[in-house]
Every structure is written in C-alpha cells, then in structure tokens.
From TrEMBL, chains A, B:
Domain of life assignment: Bacteria
Chain segments annotated as transmembrane: none
Keywords from the UniProt entry: NAD, Oxidoreductase
Domain D-isomer specific 2-hydroxyacid dehydrogenase NAD-binding: 109-281
InterPro entries documented for this protein: D-isomer_DH_NAD-bd (IPR006140), NAD(P)-bd_dom_sf (IPR036291)
Phylogenetic classification of the source organism: Bacteria, Bacillati, Bacillota, Bacilli, Bacillales
Gene Ontology molecular functions: NAD binding; oxidoreductase activity
Protein name: D-2-hydroxyacid dehydrogenase
The keyword NAD belongs to this UniProt entry's keyword annotation: yes
Disulfide bond keyword on record: no
A Pfam family hit: 2-Hacid_dh_C
C-alpha cells in the first residue's frame, strides 16, 4: 500500500468527516459513502474499507474484489463474522483500547445510581424533604466480569478502587491473574452464583450467543444486578423478561438489545428495576476514532502489525 | 481505666444499641442517654463520654467533672471546638478512617449522575424513546480536593481509577505527594482556577469558615462543578446562591448546609443544577461504628494512643 491506495469510508453518518481527516494526513484516494447505493457506485478498486454497517454482500460483486483490509469502526464485529461474503484472505480489524474508559464510566454511573438510590434523593429534593437514609455501598460487593479484554480491564481497575471483589470469566484465560477468581466458559453456574453484579462485555460469537439464559439468571442471587454492555444476543432476552417478572434480580442495566432500536412493544421499557440506554455506553469521539484510524493506516502502510486484528476462527 | 470505669453513650437515637454492644464486650458500667435531661441525670462519675450532639454545657456542672475522654461518634468536631465547656485536660477524639469509602462513593455517584446525564436517560426511557447521545466523561478532567485526610485519600484513589488529574489543597501539606499539584491555604485562587470539579472535605475551623466565598467561586471556570461533603459553613451559602443565579458553575452537589435541616425557604432546593442530599454521604453503619468504638476503648484501657485524637489547637 502507499498513500495513493484507494480507501473507502462507509458509515451511515459522518463518513465524509473521517474521509476528510484521512485526506488531510496525505492520503490521496479517499472516498466516502453513506448508503448502499453510493457504496456500490464507488467501491471499484477500493483496497481498504473502513466501515460501520457496510452492505457486505457487495464484496461478492466484481467491484468488491480488490478489498484487502476491512477496518470496523466499532469494537464488536459479530456482523462481519456472520457474513459469508468476506473472502478468507481479507484482513479484518476492529477498534480496541478505545472504549474501556467510557464504557466503565457508564457501568459505574449506572451501578452507583441504583445502589445510592439517587432517584429517591431526586424525589425528596423536589418535595424539599429532608429525610436522610443509608445507601448501599459497592465497597465489599463482588462483581463478576465476563470478558476480560481492554474494556474488562478498565472495569477491573475501577472495581478495585471501589474496594470490590472481582471475579472474571473469559474464554482465553490470559488475563486470569487480574481477578480474584477466574472461570472458564464451562463454569457459568459456578461463576455467577455468588455475584452481586454480573457485567457482560463478551464478544458475540456462536459460543456466547444467549449464553446468559434462564438457568444462568436463576443461578444468580435474587438480589444481584445484571449489566449488559456487550451485545444484546449474549442474553436470552425473553427469558430475562420472564425472570425479572418473577422478582428475581435486583436490577438489569441494559445498553444493548437483541433488536436495536429496542421495539416500543418490548416489556423491558416498563419493567421495574430495568434501566435502559440506547447503545451509547461506548461512544467514540470523532477525534479519538480518527486518530485510531490514522494510526492503523500508518501501520498498514509500513507493513506493521495492525491494532485489533480479528481472529476469524475465535470470532473476535 | 478498667472495664468498670463508667462510660456514657449519648446520641439522640440508638444510644442503647451502642451501650449494649459495649456491655457485651465486658464493660460493666455503661449507660445510655438520648435527651439532655437523661444525660444530666446519669452523668455523675462518667469517665468516658461517647457522644453525638451532647449538651456540652453539662460538663461545667459538678456531675461532669469526672469526664476524661470525649469520643465523638462522627468525623467532624467543629461543635466541640466551638464549645468553651470542655476543660483543657479532656482528651477529644473523633472517628477517622471510616468514612472514606462511603463518602467517595457518594461523590462519584453524584458526579457520574451529572456528567452521564442519567436524568436524561430516565426521561427517555419513560417515553420509550431511543435517542443515543454522547455523555461527558470524568476521564481527563481535573478534580481539586480540599482536605487530604482519610476521606480525601479515598477520593484520590477513585479519581485515579477514572483517569482524572488530581490537585489538592491542605493545611498540613503532609499528603502533598499524592496529588499532581499541591496548594497551601493561601493559594485558593490558584488552586481553583483550572478545576473542573472542586471537592470540599475540609474540617470546619476558624481558618476554613466561609473560605469558599464569592471570589473563590467566581475564580472557578463557569463550567466547573462544586461538591461539598465537608461542612456547610465552608461555603458562604448566600454568595453561592448569588453566583449560581448568574449561571456561573455547571452544578453544585451539596450534602451539607449552614443550617441543617436545610430550611424549606432556601432557594437551593429549586435552583437548577443544584443537587441536594440531607447530610447522608458519610453514614456509619452500626456495625462499623461499634467496632471502631470498641477498638478505641481497648486502646484507652491499655494506655495506647487513641485513634483520631483531635489537636485542639488545629481544631480537628
């Protein structure tokens, strides 16, 4: 590759913004597209595809055959893994080490909101009512983190600062030393049974799809709290709804859902103790994502190892 | 002292609970009182007074003359320092190292509530509205902590886990090495000018009374946030109200007030971006406070140095 190799930026919004940024760094053949039609029209000769929600079937067409590297603009690549349109020789990379800070801030904001019962303080303030109460603390509680990548590691750091016990479950086991107890993929029931909080940050793969089902949820303490910032399909959503309706679980903090946007007819919106946000826990600021893309482009150009290369066998 | 020395527990509520706990540890002369009348009636021969809001003028009466040690049940002792009824020879101690965890959880809960705009997410959920937005992060922000005792140190630990810059102001300077920049008591204006968040945990003394006045507040960035979990009188409350009314400061998170309970007529209740809680950020659970009292009793009995002895000259 050289700076004249053709790069396409595809994302439903702001593609041109990133294209501009890359052009300013000296790349001379950069195009942007925001719709499938535009993508098809401009795809010819593209070597590098930086994309979010790209219409992957286009890669089977003659115009798509020159793509050698697909850089996802997000952390999760389950959509790319499910696709059968990406030839084996194409390198796939994702964004890593960008979301740990923001996503763990989201997690602790929501947990503290629940445990400190800030809603109660807000209501009291509206009534000008002075009624102190004792809040529950994170200190001393046990958080179980499923997924010990760069996001999990930031969550561990914060949990330690809150004097929590930290258990972890991961498929590779390579970060086992960071947690007080480590569990493998066959040990979900043991993993969850003593947790006060279960935090899901796993990638979605064939192995993790609906891994948190009724049995796992019922094995959790009735007072435990579920937090999902990974992917909606990690949880069997219908079974979660059933379990919540029985009064099991203290809270479910959900940023991701099986179908997004979450349908207006989903009972989750109105179930007590369910806290819903619209897949926003891991925002990429344009500046940081732009820097990340440029840095990976430089690596590609120099033949250095890319950041966040996906192991297509493992699925993440 | 021996286990037969007379101990009085005085607190408007739950005095008998602590008295019981101490009796169970083998102390044979323990009484409790919850009203000034009861205190006066039972005070005779008391050597150790463990108290919260005790009617201090009783110490000037003959029945109060045997008191040698006053253990406060809280962290702040400004009421004891203001009193002229406590003879110089009486040892005063306060509770230390108990509140850092809970109070710093309060601080981060409230800050994250503001910066993550959880109120907005709550409103959106009620409307079943899926509208992602980018939240502001603590990461990269600068927090200035005024007061670097055991509570300040826990706040520092958490701020570090959130990847914040940490400045500190303290009177002794002995914890200066824990912060990125340290300021002394004559450097308030320099201290506050670059802060995103000013956290007040100072004890109330003649030196710190109304130290955060209009000038200090106006020297802060208009987008900065004030958090007071120390004492209400650290802040000139009327001046804070004036400053907030001009739109200066992004938020004021207040757990303590000049007069408590906060009067229903205070404008603070209704000012936008003011978050009020009723002096509850540092709750002592009965268990932990009980253990602390027993541990200090053992030290007293053995002639060991007490925890939390107050330097009456410094005022804390």
């Amino acid at each position: 590759m050289n700076k004249a190799s053709k790069i396409m930026i595809y994302t439903p919004s702001e593609a041109e913004l990133y294209a501009d940024l890359i052009r300013k760094d000296g790349y001379t053949s950069v195009c942007s597209a925001s719709t499938p039609e535009e993508a098809e029209e401009k795809l010819q000769d593209t070597e590098i595809l930086m994309q979010w929600k790209f219409p992957l079937h286009l890669l089977e067409k003659p115009a798509g055959k020159s793509v050698k590297w697909i850089q996802s603009l997000g952390a999760g690549v389950d959509d790319l893994m499910r696709s059968t349109s990406i030839p084996e020789g194409v390198t796939i990379s994702r964004v890593v080490d960008q979301f740990g800070g923001p996503m763990s801030e989201y997690v602790f904001a929501q947990l503290l909101y629940v445990y400190q019962d800030i809603a109660r303080s807000q209501v009291a303030q509206k009534k000008k009512s002075w009624q102190p109460f004792v809040t529950e603390l994170l200190q001393g509680k046990t958080i179980g983190i499923a997924g010990l990548g760069s996001i999990g590691k930031e969550a561990i750091r914060k949990a330690r600062a809150f004097n929590m016990k930290v258990y972890g479950l991961s498929y590779s086991g390579k970060e086992a030393h960071l947690v007080d107890r480590h569990y493998g993929p066959d040990e979900w029931m043991d993993f969850v049974k003593d947790l006060d909080i279960l935090l899901l940050i796993l990638p979605l793969t064939e192995q993790t799809r609906h891994i948190v089902n009724r049995d796992v949820l019922m094995a959790m303490k009735p007072t435990a709290c579920l937090v999902n910032i990974g992917r909606g399909h990690l949880v069997a959503e219908d079974e979660l709804i059933d379990v919540l309706r029985t009064g099991h679980l203290r809270a479910a903090i959900l940023d991701v859902f099986q179908q997004e946007p979450l349908s207006e007819t989903s009972p989750l919106w109105e179930l007590p103790n369910v806290y819903i946000t619209p897949h926003m826990s891991g925002p990429s600021t344009k500046e940081r994502l732009g820097q990340y893309l440029l840095s990976n482009l430089t690596r590609y150009q120099n033949g250095d190892a890319l950041l966040g290369v996906v192991n297509r066998k493992a699925g993440y």
